[in-house]
Amino acid sequence: MAEPLKNQFGASVPTTIAAMLQTVSSDFDRDAFLADVLQGYDALELMPRAWHIAHALQRHLPADYEAALALLMRSVAVPAEHKVGSGMTSFLFLPHCCFVAHYGLDHFEASMAAQHELTQRFTAEFSIRPFLERHQQATLARLAEWAHDPSSTCAAWW
Asked: Which helix (H) or strand (E) covers residue 3, if one does?
């Protein structure tokens, strides 16, 4: 029987995210974040783990969403020491996408810029859905633009 995917999304994920954030913000309390996020972590499945990390990020980053997002997105550029097998390395950015999906709905432009950046590393398949529900026309217009973006895999096919 194959090992559950959640096992490849273990404690190294929040540990790596914490290290990346600490690199871009001396105010980020790595130890407090890890104590918070690792509480009950092992009992969670894959997606609940990602959401758990996203909610912990919200509690440990600045209260202002756009300031928190700026730190989070700066940390994305930090080389990560997180390596897992079976193509799971990009899943490191799943909590980032969850953070944007949950906390960014009232900040369309900043969140769309983050989604664009995050899709260079991981899918925004799930995080774009709340924006389609709340901001349908604006999101569809942005997706139409992105369909012709040079970084889009689809654009390269045409």
From this structure: none
Cβ 129 vs Cβ 101: under 8 Å = yes
Give per-residue pLDDT as tens, 58-98.
Answer: 999 999 999 999 999 999 987 665 554 445 677 899 999 99
Report residue 158's pLDDT band, with 50, 70 and 90 as the boundaries: very low
Q: Is residue 92 a contact partner of residue 13, using CB atoms and an 8 Å limit?
A: yes
The whole-number pLDDT of residue 149 equals 82
The secondary structure of 62-124, three-state, reads CCCHHHHHHHHHHHHCCCCCCCCCCCCHHHHHHHHHHHHHHHCCCCHHHHHHHHHHHCCCCCC
What one-character DSSP code corresponds to residue 27? Answer: T
Tell me if 96 sits within 8 A of 76, measured CB to CB: yes
> To the nearest whole number, what is the mean pLDDT of the chain?
89
pLDDT for 36 equals 98
**Structural domain harbouring 38:** 5-157
Structure tokens given for 11: 């404690």
Structural domains of the chain, count = 1
What's the CA gap between 19 and 81, in Å, rounded? 9
